[in-house]
Amino acid sequence: MRSELMKSKLTTLSDAVARIPAGASIALGGSLLRRQPMALVHELIRQQKRDLTLLTWATTLATDMLAANGAIRRWEGIYAGFFRHGLAPNFRRAVQSGQIETHDYSESAFVARFRAAAMGLPYLPSKALLGTGMQGKSPEEITPITCPFTGQPLLALKAADTDFTLLHGYVADEYGNVQWPVVRDSDDIDQMMASASKRLIVTVEKIIPHQQVQERPALTYIPHTLVEALIEVPYAAHPTATDGFYNEDEAALKGWLTASATAEGAAAWLREFVHGCPARQDYVEKVGSLAALSALDVAREFTV
């Protein structure tokens, strides 16, 4: 693609997140302890975004931190916890206190909602939640219908039509052509979320030359036409992993969970590591510098 027909999407974390108003609905990418868009989440917290509706796949730290900051009004997704580390303590407290309204989905049902949005459809039919308690809990998004061809009972699952989508990717050129590695842990729906997005904000580990994108076009899973804002942020998923680049930081994750034994402890952690670090580089220095983070690196199967 001719670069003169494209424009740079590069910006800063503060500028990108400033576009998101209070009360927005946001799809957050990543899965479990991989590629949670933490640099963007920290900026949401610093800018005190409130009353948010989050749609997530299998979410961990991103949702728990936003819950600790009182940012979430409604959550829709398949899982919120810390995988092998247990539950998400701040999210759990907020749900139990009634601060966060939750709407659970099976994986196949949630995929159907994002697939509908990606296809530009208002809904997709599904059998996934028939006979479950999930069906009755979310009548605004799940409606019984009858198949016009067979008479079968089905459910219409409303498209996941969010205001913004926040993802952490691997590499991109300045125009927003985001490339995925050939080999990765592909248990997420980030690419579908991108296709479904109205306004897509992406952080990547590295900006690469456009020529490099042209040399391997098959790796461009998110084209520039979908991306509104792009920010180069090395280790932007920390302390979660970016598969193929670096592992999760077990010590940092345990530090958050230890602090989160109480709401006051979580708030103190946020004051020190988020509010007290106005730039991402400040956070990097706080957790030990780039040299310390590089100890998490893995042998890359995706050369950049």
From TrEMBL:
GO terms for molecular function: CoA-transferase activity. The keyword Transferase applies. SMART domains: CoA_trans. InterPro entries: CoA_trans_fam_I, NagB/RpiA_transferase-like. Keywords: Transferase. This is Putative coenzyme A transferase. It comes from Sodalis praecaptivus.
